[in-house]
Specification:
Elements lengths: L1 H29 L22 H20 L8 H10 L7 H15 L7 H19 L3 H20 L2 H13 L4 H22 L17 H33 L7 H15 L8 H8 L5 H20 L7 H22 L2 H4 L2 H17 L2 H12 L5 H18 L6 H6 L6 H5 L18 E2 L4 H10 L4 E5 L5 E6 H8 L19 E2 L4 H8 L6 E5 L6 E6 H9 L1 H6 L1
C-alpha cells in the first residue's frame, strides 16, 4: 500500500510534468497554446512562413526525438500501451527506467511539433515505468511488480483525465487483464493519489468542457444502436489502417531509423497543411464537433484525416497514444451521424447531434481497444451525465461485438501479435512461453565475412559444431547464414574457386533477442543446421546463437538455463 501511494504520487507528478512539456513544445513549435484551435494562422515567431510552417515543424521535431529514441530507448517509439501489456503479461512487469524520461521527451516533442497522437498512451508508459522501477529497487515479488506497473498506469490516466475511476478500470481491464481484490485495492489507492496530485497542480476543472445531453425520445435507442454498429466498423478500420500505413512506411524507408521521423515529417506536414485541425491532440476541435459547429462533410473529412494523420505519425516513428485519436474519431463519426439523422427525421425525435458525438467517442474507443468497461466509465466521468449511460452502454456493447466479429485483436494486441507475441499463450504453455531468448542464448560463433572465398570457409565450417555459421557484410551488418551442407555441395562444382561465402548465404526467418522461446522454436525446428543466430531487436546484427539443446535446457531446467 505504501508503494502504491508512492507510485501514485510519482505518476501524478509525471503527468503534470509531461503536460507541461507538451504545452511548452506546442508553444515553441507553433506559437500557440493549441494550434488545432488557431487554424489558418501562422507561427508568430516566423511570420514570413505563414501557415506553411506546419510543413517544417514535424520534421524539426522528428530530427530531435528520432535520434533520442533510437539511441536510448526504442521502447518509447509508438503508442506505448502494448509494451506495458507485454511487460506485465510476459516479463513480470520489468520496464527499463530510462523509458520514463525518453518517452516523456519524445512524445512531448512529437505532439508539440504537430504529431496527431494523444497524451494518454505516453503517460501510461511513463507511469508504468515508474512503478516498475520502484519495484525493482525494492526487489518486490513478481506479482507485486505487476501490480505496481498497473498502479503507475492507472495513476497516469487518472491525473491526465482528472478521472480516477477511468484510471482504475483502464489498468485492470487492459494492463492487468484480471480483477483481484488485492490488485484492485493497490490500483485504487494509486489512482486516487495521482488524481489528487494532478488536481493540486492542474486544477479541478473537467478535462473536457462538454454540454449536458439526455435522451429525448425512446426511438433514439435504435439510433444509438445503429451508431454502435458503425463505431465497431470505424474502430476496426482505424486499427487496420494504422498498421497498414506502418507497414508501408517500413517498406518505403531504407535510411537509418533515427532519421525516419524527420523525413516522414514532411508527409505529415502536408496532411496538416490541408487540415490544420489535426495538429497535436486536437481536443478543442473535438469540443467544437460535440457543440455542433461543423457540417457533415467537414466532420467526415476530419474523421478520415485523423485516421491518416495518426497512422502517419506512428508509421514514421513518432511517439504518442491512440487513446485520444480514437475519442476524436468517435466524436466526428457520432456528430456526423447525429446531423445526418436531423435531416432524415424530425429533430424532436433524433435529438441533439452532440449526444451522438459523446456516445460515438466511447463506442469507437471500445471497438478499438476492446475495453468496454473503461469506455463507459471514461465517458461517464467526462460528462457527469447519468442519462447518457443507457445509450452509451448499448452502443459500446454493440461496437465491441461488431469489432470482435471483424477482427480478433484490439489496436493494442494486434501490435504484439504482429511481432509474434500472444498474450494468452502464458496460460496454454506455462513458463515455456514467458522465457525470452536473450536469457538462454549462447555465445555467437565467429561470423564469416561475406567476401571470403568458399575454399577458405570450408575448413572453418568443418570445425564448427553447429553445422552453420553467421555471415556479415563489410560493415558488420548481418547477411544470413552459410551451412556446411551448402559448402559441401559447392565443392562438387567446377566454379568453386570463384564462389564467395555471400553466394552460398541463406537468409532464414529471423530470431530476435526479445522473442520468447516458444516463438523461436517454430523457426528453429526448420533450420538446416543445429542452430541459428539471434539478432538484435532491429534485426541488423547477430548478438548470440540459439540451439535445439539450449531450448531443451530452458524447457526442462529453467532455472539453470536462465542463470547461464
Amino acid at each position: 500500500m505504501a508503494l502504491a501511494f508512492v507510485v501514485g504520487c510519482g505518476a501524478g507528478l509525471g503527468a503534470v510534468v509531461f503536460r507541461w512539456l507538451v504545452n511548452t513544445f506546442t508553444e515553441l513549435f507553433s506559437g500557440h497554446a493549441d494550434y488545432s484551435a488557431a487554424t489558418a494562422l501562422g507561427n508568430p515567431r516566423v511570420p514570413w512562413l505563414g501557415v506553411w510552417f506546419v510543413l517544417v515543424a514535424p520534421s524539426i521535431g522528428g530530427a530531435l526525438y528520432g535520434p533520442l529514441v533510437d539511441r536510448f530507448a526504442r521502447e518509447a517509439r509508438g503508442h506505448g500501451v502494448p509494451e506495458v501489456m507485454y511487460a506485465v503479461a510476459q516479463r513480470d512487469g520489468r520496464i527499463p527506467p530510462r523509458v520514463t524520461v525518453i518517452k516523456a521527451l519524445a512524445s512531448a516533442l512529437c505532439i508539440g511539433s504537430g504529431g496527431s497522437v494523444g497524451r494518454e498512451g505516453p503517460i501510461v508508459q511513463i507511469g508504468a515505468a515508474l512503478g516498475s522501477t520502484a519495484g525493482r529497487l525494492l526487489r518486490v515479488p513478481e506479482g507485486r511488480m505487476r501490480s505496481l506497473v498497473a498502479c503507475g498506469a492507472a495513476g497516469g490516466i487518472a491525473a491526465t483525465f482528472n478521472a480516477p475511476l477511468a484510471g482504475v478500470f483502464f489498468a485492470m481491464e487492459l494492463i492487468l487483464r484480471d480483477f483481484t481484490v488485492e490488485s484492485f485495492g493497490f490500483v485504487v489507492l494509486s489512482s486516487v493519489t495521482a488524481s489528487v496530485v494532478g488536481r493540486s497542480a492542474l486544477g479541478d476543472a473537467p478535462f473536457l468542457r462538454l454540454p449536458a445531453f439526455h435522451v429525448d425520445h425512446p426511438v433514439q435507442y435504435l439510433m444509438f444502436a445503429g451508431l454502435g454498429l458503425l463505431a465497431g466498423v470505424a474502430g476496426t478500420a482505424f486499427s487496420g489502417v494504422l498498421y497498414r500505413i506502418e507497414d508501408l512506411c517500413d517498406k518505403v524507408w531504407r535510411g537509418p531509423e533515427w532519421l525516419r521521423p524527420a523525413a516522414g515529417g514532411v508527409v505529415l506536414g502536408g496532411v496538416l497543411l490541408v487540415l490544420p485541425q489535426l495538429y497535436g491532440v486536437g481536443y478543442p476541435v473535438l469540443e467544437n464537433a460535440v457543440d455542433g459547429r461543423y457540417v457533415v462533410g467537414f466532420l467526415l473529412a476530419l474523421l478520415v484525416g485523423k485516421i491518416l494523420a495518426t497512422s502517419l505519425t506512428i508509421g514514421i516513428g513518432g511517439s504518442g497514444g491512440v487513446f485520444a485519436p480514437s475519442l476524436f474519431i468517435g466524436a466526428m463519426l457520432g456528430a456526423a451521424y447525429g446531423v445526418g439523422l436531423q435531416h432524415l427525421v424530425t429533430p424532436g425525435v433524433s435529438g441533439a447531434s452532440g449526444a451522438y458525438a459523446l456516445v460515438g467517442m466511447g463506442a469507437v474507443f471500445a471497438a478499438a481497444s476492446r475495453a468496454p468497461i473503461t469506455a463507459v466509465v471514461v465517458l461517464f466521468e467526462l460528462t457527469g451525465e447519468y442519462s447518457i449511460i443507457l445509450p452509451l452502454m448499448l452502443a459500446i456493447v454493440l461496437a465491441t461485438l461488431t469489432a470482435r466479429v471483424l477482427s480478433k485483436d484490439s489496436i493494442y494486441t494486434l501490435k504484439l501479435r504482429r511481432r509474434g507475441i500472444d498474450l494468452d499463450a502464458r496460460a496454454e504453455h506455462g513458463p515455456f512461453a514467458t522465457v525470452p531468448v536473450r536469457e538462454v542464448v549462447e555465445a555467437l560463433p565467429s561470423p564469416l565475412p561475406a567476401s571470403m572465398p568458399v575454399g577458405d570457409a570450408v575448413p572453418i565450417l568443418s570445425r564448427s559444431p553447429h553445422g552453420a555459421l553467421p555471415v556479415v557484410g563489410a560493415d558488420g551488418t548481418y547477411r544470413g547464414t552459410i551451412t556446411a551442407r551448402a559448402a559441401a555441395e559447392a565443392l562438387t562444382e567446377e566454379e568453386t574457386r570463384r564462389l564467395t561465402v555471400d553466394d552460398l548465404t541463406e537468409l532464414p526467418s529471423p530470431i530476435t533477442a526479445d522473442m520468447t522461446i516458444l516463438q523461436a522454436l517454430s523457426i528453429l525446428v526448420s533450420a538446416p543446421g543445429t542452430g541459428l543466430p539471434v539478432l538484435d531487436e532491429r534485426r541488423t546484427a547477430p548478438v548470440g546463437w540459439l540451439t535445439h539443446q539450449r531450448v531443451l535446457q530452458a524447457v526442462h531446467a529453467p532455472a539453470p538455463a536462465q542463470a547461464a
